[in-house]
Amino acid sequence: MSYTIVQALLIGLWAAFCFAGQVWGTYTNRALFISLGVGLILGDVRTAVIFGATAELAFMGFGVGPGGSTPPNPLGPGIVGTIMSVSIKGLTPGAALSLSYPFAILVPFVITFIFSINANNMAWAKKAIEDGKYRRFHFLANTTLLGFILFAFVFGFVATISTSVLKTFVTSIPAWLIQGLTVAGGLLPAIGFALIMSTMVKKEYIPALLLGYVCVAYLKMPIIGLAFAGAVLAFNNFYNGRKNNSNSNSGSNNGGTSDQPEDEEGIEDGI
């Protein structure tokens, strides 16, 4: 399956818009959001969203870099993986995620390269202000953003017009290897979710986690129903917490003491 130049240009523009979001501080550079736009352009939203949801679970954890490291970027799977899922019939979301994951590793290297070549721009921008060259200053101050936009546009455009090459490559892979990639791709969302849970989970949440597992594994409760039940519990926790804090503050203002021990006040573990 091949796509038109117009579709390639639209995906390039969509990739540029989404990728620029990480500079603007918005959540456009997310696998699910990227896949949704690609699916709309290619005319298969359902397949795109299924893949995007699979990739999003993985990048919930992979998208957090330890220290100053640059984590794998969802732009690669969001564009390439979605195109694979839509254009190659029979390719599972897990296999598409595994095949497109190397692009998630490639993108951080490009990000580092763009930052490196623009490292001295602040000094030049300062000099431009001192010289009164404000247009030059605006250009230098935005070269990193322009570099991100240009790279993402080219990446999305090339990925779309290279669909036939991607299809030839995937169809040449042995069935046993595709099966292995499918299994590996199925594990990536679990690993990503486990990574994010490792930073968010507290011992108080363990009963809720076990309850959710029992509801899905044994009671066969639908995911949507479980999500609504979880939302109800979350709101209940939130409002009860606000009520307890209000009562605690009221008691303190009246000269009373809080029931909460001092060593449990302050910053809690988790997010």
From TrEMBL:
Residues 260-271 have a biased composition (Acidic residues). It is a multi-pass membrane protein. Residues 246-271 are annotated as: Disordered. Keywords: Cell membrane, Membrane, Phosphotransferase system, Sugar transport, Transmembrane, Transmembrane helix, Transport. Residues 246-256 have a biased composition (Low complexity). PROSITE patterns: PTS_EIIC_TYPE_4. The chain crosses the membrane at residues 99-118, 139-161, 173-196, 208-235. It comes from the Bacteria. GO terms for biological process: phosphoenolpyruvate-dependent sugar phosphotransferase system. It is found in: Cell membrane. Coiled coil: none annotated. GO terms for cellular component: plasma membrane. PANTHER family: N-ACETYLGALACTOSAMINE PERMEASE II COMPONENT-RELATED, N-ACETYLGALACTOSAMINE PERMEASE IIC COMPONENT 1. This is PTS system, N-acetylgalactosamine-specific IIC component. It comes from Lacticaseibacillus saniviri JCM 17471 = DSM 24301.
